[in-house]
Amino acid sequence: MKQMIACCGIDCEHCDAYIATINDDNEKREETAQKWREAFGAPDISAESINCTGCRMDGVKFSHCNVCNIRQCATDKGFSTCGACAELDTCQIVAFVFEHAPETKANLLS
Residue 107 in contact with residue 101, Cβ under 8 Å? Predict the structure, then answer.
């Protein structure tokens, strides 16, 4: 599995926060913050919070990813991703991600 697959299955290399960070692109940060505020009903997402080097990589994390209960659960269980968990198909913690981005589950299983 690629290192840039997050604990939940998101491909960090294609994540807008990661792209804005590696390109130091403030316009992309603002665009991403606006899109995510609307998509997730999260008015606290600011352009300044759009910085991330990837879920499983060293470095800065997007503010919401930094406190992610999915990431915490995988870490507590000693897994690099949820793909190693026997509860993957029934897990209510990661179900939100699968609902909004169905390709994430395939990323975890490949």
Answer: no
